[in-house]
Amino acid sequence: MKKDSWIKSPLALGIIPAVVGSLIPIIHDYIKELPLGTTFILVSNYLIKTLTRVLSFEIKLWWVLSSAAAILVFIVILRRFSQPQTPPLPKFLNYTEGVLKNWKWSWKWKHTNSGWQITQLTAHCPKCTTTMIQYKTSFGPNFECPRCTYSASEYQCEMPHHIESLIIDNIDRNNFIAESY
Ligand SMILES: [Zn+2]
User: Fold this and answer.
1) How far apart are CA 62 and CA 75, in angstroms?
2) Which of 1, 20, 159, 168 qualifies as a FRET site for 112, CA 20 to 30 Å off?
């Protein structure tokens, strides 16, 4: 009863509207900015709480070790499969010299678009195995040893294209390992 009478008093009737009236613009301004401000506060609180929770999370040592091992295995597997697998070089690349008929011959292998090919096929002197000089005449190739002056002409010569065929045939027959040096 006392309360009601106080509110109804002339003083209260004068002060309350004045106070309420002065507060209305402040409350209005606050409410106007409320959605943005509230969202910002809520998001900040959420982030802080999440970060705190993550940072204060108790981590077991075996988790770290097993994770590191798993990552390591993953990297090894990834590297193995990402690297292009180069096929091994053919064995016949070691087959670069041999006696095909009576003379010793040496050669090199060159990889071309059509596969491996014999190059620099060279005849060696049958007497001293020095590399012989080959020169062509109208009758065919002639060979001459610069060391012991051995020479061969026409039918005495071993034909380079015959020798090349024999080398390839030896490879096809898998008969070159015994002759490789
Ligand atoms: Zn010779």
Assistant:
1) 20
2) 159
Q: Which residues of 35-59 are buried (b: 16+ CB within 10 A; e: fewer)?
A: eeeeeeeeeeeeeeeeeeeeeeeee
For 120-134, the pLDDT digits (tens) are: 999 999 999 999 999
Q: How far is the CA of 144 from the centre of ligand 1 (A)?
A: 8
Q: For the whole prediction, is pTM greater than 0.70?
A: no
d(CA 79, ligand 1 centre) in Å = 55
Segments making up each domain of the chain, as ranges = 2-82, 91-172
- For residue 4, pLDDT beyond 60: no
Helical packing angle, 10-32 and 34-55, nearest 10°: 60
Q: What's the pLDDT score for residue 164?
A: 96
Ligand 1 center to 171 CA (angstroms): 28
